[in-house]
């Protein structure tokens, strides 16, 4: 069965897609549901039946979240084709962070800006004194980096040093600040945190409808619609 992704809508955003291609083998139902939900949210536009079989064929990881991250890493890796990988990551604004990455908060903000054509270069700054609050700046717009867990990070959270190496901020707090800038630039897609495992965090950008559906399906780190709307800066 061939898979034909729909054309973008009048705003240039990916339309919601039909379920992923059928699989003739017997994959884990949750893995297939994961792919179907991502496809319906406008992601995985290059996926065809043959590649779907390959993605679902390996079950090395034991935990569900780890298997799903492996699927994403394989798909967005483009089977070793750098051009294909870059195209897929840019299309879905896929961003993967591991605990082995030595990426600073500045680096994360820069990477997210590269994936977001609506915004120009983003810089990370402090307001006032050396101990003042961190913000992201994009032209005349600023967004506070609000990190409720800065002083009580769990041991399995990816820890990111700030500009002065004196405090830590989570990747998710930086992503939320980027979403604020996207909102102020009128973007209709926002970054959402897919379920991670002990060593990886993954983000994609979707519309409000896609974000709500992924949240309801249980594939996001955000449990409620209220948390989702706050993170994505959607209007209630």
What are the SSEs and their pairings?
Elements: H1 29-40, H2 49-57, H3 64-77, H4 82-92, E1 95-98, H5 105-114, E2 123-126, E3 134-138, E4 141-144, E5 160-161, E6 168-169, H6 171-184, E7 190-194, E8 200-206, H7 208-217, H8 225-232
Antiparallel strand pairs: 1-8, 2-3, 3-4, 5-6, 7-8
Helix pairs in contact: 1-7, 5-6
Shape: globular
Structural class: alpha+beta
- Sequence stretches where pLDDT stays below 50 over 5 or more residues: 1-8, 161-167
Strand line-up in the sheet with most strands: 1-8-7
* Average pLDDT number: 84
The percentage of residues in β strands lies in: 5-15%
User: How many distinct domains?
Assistant: 2
Order of helices and strands: HHHHEHEEEEEHEEHH
**Gap between N and C termini:** 39 Å
Number of beta strands: 8
Plain-language structure description:
- There is one protein chain.
- The chain is an alpha+beta fold and 236 residues long.
- It folds into 2 domains: 29-92, no CATH class; 99-232, no CATH class.
- The chain is 37% helix and 14% strand.
- The protein is built from 8 helices and 8 strands, in the order H-H-H-H-E-H-E-E-E-E-E-H-E-E-H-H.
- It has helices spanning 29-40, 49-57, 64-77, 82-92, 105-114, 171-184, 208-217, 225-232, and strands at 95-98, 123-126, 134-138, 141-144, 160-161, 168-169, 190-194, 200-206.
- The chain has a 3-stranded antiparallel β-sheet with strand order 1-8-7. A 3-stranded antiparallel β-sheet has the order 2-3-4, covered by helices on one side.
- Strand 3 and strand 4 form a beta hairpin.
- The longest helix is centred in the N-terminal third of the chain and has 14 residues, at 64-77.
- The radius of gyration is 18 Å and the shape is globular.
- The termini are far apart.
């Amino acid at each position: 069965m061939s898979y034909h992704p729909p054309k973008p809508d009048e705003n240039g955003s990916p339309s919601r897609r039909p379920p992923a291609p059928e699989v003739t083998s017997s994959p884990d139902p949750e893995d297939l549901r994961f792919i179907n939900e991502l496809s319906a949210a406008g992601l995985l536009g290059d996926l065809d039946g043959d590649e779907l079989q390959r993605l679902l064929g390996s079950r090395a990881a034991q935990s569900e979240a780890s298997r799903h991250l492996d699927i994403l890493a394989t798909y967005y890796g483009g089977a070793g084709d750098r051009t294909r990988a870059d195209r897929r990551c840019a299309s879905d604004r896929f961003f993967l962070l591991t605990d082995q990455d030595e990426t600073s908060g500045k680096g994360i903000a820069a990477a997210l800006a590269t994936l977001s054509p609506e915004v120009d270069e983003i810089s990370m700054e402090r307001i006032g004194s050396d101990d003042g609050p961190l913000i992201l700046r994009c032209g005349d717009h600023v967004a506070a980096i609000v990190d409720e867990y800065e002083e009580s990070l769990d041991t399995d959270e990816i820890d990111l040093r700030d500009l002065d190496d004196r405090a830590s901020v989570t990747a998710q707090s930086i992503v939320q600040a980027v979403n604020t800038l996207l909102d102020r630039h009128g973007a209709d897609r926002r970054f959402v945190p897919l379920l991670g495992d002990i060593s990886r965090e993954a983000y994609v950008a979707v519309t409000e409808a896609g974000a709500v559906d992924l949240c309801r399906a249980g594939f996001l780190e955000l449990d409620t619609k209220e948390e989702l709307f706050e993170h994505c800066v959607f209007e209630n």
